[in-house]
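Structural prep section.
Before we set up the soaks we want a predicted structure of the protein with nicotinamide-adenine-dinucleotide in place, mainly to decide which crystallisation condition to try first. Input record follows.
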Amino acid sequence: MAQDYDVIVIGGGPGGYVAAIRCAQLGLKTACIDAGMDKSGNKPALGGTCLNVGCIPSKALLDSSHHFEQLTHLEAHGITVGKASMDAATMVRRKDGIVSQLTGGIAQLFKANKVTHLPGFGQLLAQGQVRFSPHEGKVETLTCKQVILASGSVPVELPFLPFDHKRILDNTDILNLEKIPKKLGIIGAGVIGLEMGTVWRRLGTEVTILEAMDTLLPPADADIRKQAARIFKQQGLDIRLGAKVTAAKAHSRGVNVDVEVGGKAEQLKFDYLLVAVGRKPASEGLLAEGCGVEVNERGQVVVDDLCRTGVDGVWAIGDLVRGPMLAHKASEEGIAVAERIAGQKPHVDFDHIPWVIYTHPEIAWAGKTEAELKEAGIPYRAGSFPFAATGRALAMGESHGLVKMLAHAETDRILGVHILGPQASELIAEAVVAMEFAGSSEDIARIVHAHPTLAEAMHEAALAVDNRAIHKANRR
Ligand code: FAD
Ligand code: NAD
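Run finished without errors. Recording the C-alpha cells verbatim:
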C-alpha cells in the first residue's frame, strides 16, 4: 500500500525541524507535524521551545540587559553617560522580532527543502500510522514508513504551586514582563534561574533565588560553581541554598512565599515568582494506547544509543529522551536518525556535548568534572589558569574566572574542560574539537594560540596540567 510519507516527524523544535530537513535532503518524502504557535496564539510557529520561548529569546534578553549594565559601568574607561533608562516593553518587542525572524526562517527552509509543515497535534497510533489533529480542519490518519518523535519538554510544576501565569510564572511568562519588577523570587538555581535572574538583576530588580540543594548549578564542576557563586553574590544575586519552599500564595499585587533555610522559617514577598525547577518530557497525548512505545517513570520515551524505540520504524530524539535537555544535542540526534533511516551509519558522541550558561561571566564545560573522575577512579592531572593573568581579559575589563583542564594521568588525553569567564561559550569549542580527536593536554599546549586572546587561557591551562604554565606560578 502506498504511504502518504516516507517519514513523519512529530515536533518542530531543533530536534524535529532539523531531522525533517535532513530527511528531505536525503530524498525522503517528509512531513513535520508541529503544535507550536507564535506569541499571539494565532499563527503556527516552527522552532519549538528553543526558538520561541527558550534559547533564542532568553539570549536576546540577556544581551539587552548586558548592554544596559555595561552602560552604567564604563567609568574606568573614562566614559560617563547620563542616567541610563530601560524600557522593558521595547526590549521584549526586540526579542519578539528576533523570534519571528527565526521561526519564519524555518518555514522558508521547509519550503526550500520540500518538507510538508502540518500545524497541529500528532499522535503515534499503531506502527506506520499517525493521527494528525490540525489546528484548523478535520482529524486525519496519515501513513508513513518511519516516525520520528520529537515533542520536546515542558516546565515542571510544583504540586503545591501551580502556575497562574500572572504572578506565579513559568519560563515562558518571565520572557514577557513589560515592566521591570521591584522584587523577583525564583525557585531553582539551575540554568534558567541563573540566566533569568541575571537578566532582571541587571535591570535593577532585587532578585532572590531559592535553591533546594546546597549548591547552585549542580551539574557543573565544583571549582567553577564556587567561584561563580562568589561572583553572582558580588553582582547582587541573593542565592539562598538549602531552601525549602513550603507554601506560596499569590494575590493581586504579588506573591507571599513561605520558606525554610537552615531550620529558620520566614515569609518573603515578591512581585513575581518564577518557578524554574526543571523540565519534563512532553509525552502526554503523544502515544496512543497499544502503539508499543515504552515510556519510563520520568516520562521519557525509552530509546537506545541510536535513538531507536522498541518499535520498528519509530525513533525518538531531543528533550523527549534521556540525556541533557540541550538544543544542539536534539539537533545532532535528529541528523543522525535521518541518516540512519537513509541507510547511513552516523555517530553522535554523547561524552563531549558542551554545556553553556549565558550568565556573565559565562560558564561552559564539556567532558567530565573532577568529582566524576574521582568517583570513577580515573587517575587525572588538573591544570587551571585565571583570566586575570591574560592581557586580553584585563584589557577588556573581564578578568573574572578561569579555564580548568583535566587530563588522564597516564595517557594525557583530555577528559574535561571547564570554563568560567568571558566568551566561555565560544572558547569551549576548541576543547570539544580536541576531545573529539582524542587530543591530549600536550596537543593544546603545543598549538600556537594568537596573542593577545582569551584562548591563551586555554593554552596556559593545558601547560599547567604539566606544571609548566608560563604566566602564573606553578605547583612545586
Ligand atoms: P522542543 O524544542 O521542545 O520542540 C518540541 C516541539 O514539539 C514544540 O514545538 C511543541 O509544540 C511540539 N509538540 C509537542 N507535542 C506535540 C505533539 N503531540 N504534536 C505536534 N507537536 C508537538 N538549550 C541550549 O542548548 N541552549 C540554550 O541556550 C538554551 N536555553 C534555553 C532557555 C530556556 C528558557 C529554555 C526553556 C530552554 C533552553 N534550552 C537551551 C533547552 C532547549 O530549548 C531544548 O533542549 C530544545 O528546544 C529541545 O529541542 P526538542 O526539539 O527536543 O524539543
Ligand atoms: P535545572 O535542572 O537546570 O535546574 C533546576 C534547579 O531547581 C536545580 O538546581 C534543582 O536543585 C532546583 N530545584 C528542584 N526542585 C526544587 C524545589 N522544590 N525548591 C528549590 N529548588 C528546587 O532546570 P531549569 O533551570 O528549569 O532548566 C531546565 C533545562 O532547560 C536545563 O536543565 C537545561 O537542560 C535547559 N536549559 C538550557 C539552557 C542553556 O543551555 N543555556 C538555558 C536554559 C535551560
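Observations: The radius of gyration is 24 Å.
Flagged for discussion at group meeting.
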